[in-house]
Amino acid sequence: MKNILVTGVAGMIGSHLIDVLLEKGYNVIGIDNLSYGKLENIKHNLDNSNFKFHRVDVTDFNAMAILAKDVEIIVHLAAFKKIGENDAAMPTFDINGKGTENVLQAAKMWGCKVIYASTSDVYGMSPDLPLNEDGDLLLGPSMIRRWAYAVSKLYGEQMAFAYYHDYNVPVVVIRYFGGFSPRSSFAWSGGHVPIFIRSILNNEPVIIHGDGSQTRSMGFVNDLVSGTVLAMENENAIGEIINIGNDEELSVFDTAKMVHEIANTGHELKINFIPMAEVFGKYKDIMRRIPDLQKAKKILGYEPKVKLEEAIRLTIKEINSKA
Fold first, then answer.
1. What would the pLDDT profile of 100-134 be if each residue is shown by its tens digit?
2. Which residue among 26, 149, 164, 302 is the active-site one?
3. Interval 298-312: pLDDT, tens
4. Could you state, in order of their start, the residue ranges of all structural domains in the chain?
5. Is the preceding peptide bond at 170 cis, omega within 30 degrees of 0?
6. To 10 degrees, the CA torsion angle through 78, 84, 85, 87?
């Protein structure tokens, strides 16, 4: 029975991940500072004898070093995402930089394998679609602070491979594409689909940045968790970067229409288009984002199973059941 440490355990992916890990018989230590994650997401596991939760920040190295002792695998999900130009950038660099360094240092100390959660944001504005792990990355100007998140996660990738090559720490880098579930943050940090669901169920205007023609590939959390577990358990994934997500591409505007149709509230769809510049300044939105999943399929045997329409339906059903 392996011991697993999950950072960011009370977040959307983390909370669903431990459901699966506990079901598979792992012992799980979960940490979260609850700045993004919610205790409600993991409360059903708090009485499980194979799960221990600690309210700890990943920037606290001493706590990380103590909790990582006797752990075989660390799944590092904890992160901070800067959204708009008016948000402070330093928490993004501090948590995503120092926090990741602490995880890797603890893994080096105790001989742990690390699954590092990166993001499709690191591809930036790359025109090479579908986005491939071996492709070049294209980020925008440094003075545009919206890139802070992508840069911080890319720094984490480079640091992970430095520990892999320099200190023989086994690492797997996962680049998650967008995902959601009923436990998503229903704020912009959780992506556009949960925001649209909340707005439509509450008969509020759906806010769309730009004209909504930008496309995304959004997956259900079950598929993200499945890919994560496969990366944990497959030794062939060590030293690799692997895309995990859904390759079903749909525009933001069409996604809003799909959510409205599935929700079937009886109200008209109200949309409020907001110019990009009002939210992101001079940042240019990424117009298309779709993953190449061939590597995930080849190394992990990974293939997304939940279509976007079904994922939206499942999320709305659970939200309505709790209303």
1. 999 999 999 999 999 999 999 999 999 999 999 99
2. 149
3. 999 999 999 999 999
4. 3-181+218-247+289-306
5. no
6. -50
Return the ∠ at Cα 224 (arms to 219 and 227), rounded to 5°: 130
Tokens 């919206």 -> residue: 146
Q: Considering the entire predicted model, what is its pTM?
A: 0.95
Kindly report the CATH class assigned to 3-181+218-247+289-306: alpha beta
Contacts of 155 (CB under 8 A, 6+ apart): 96, 97, 100
Name the one residue in this structure whose structure tokens are 């802070």: 148
| Catalytic site includes residue 149 | yes
Question: How many angstroms separate the Cα of 296 from the Cα of each of 27, 146, 289?
Answer: 26, 28, 17
Q: What does the block give as tokens for 61?
A: 């190295």
Q: pLDDT, tens digit, for every residue of 39-67? A: 999 999 999 999 999 999 999 999 999 99
User: How far is residue 25 from each of residues 50, 172, 272, 309, measured CA to CA in Å?
Assistant: 8, 22, 47, 32
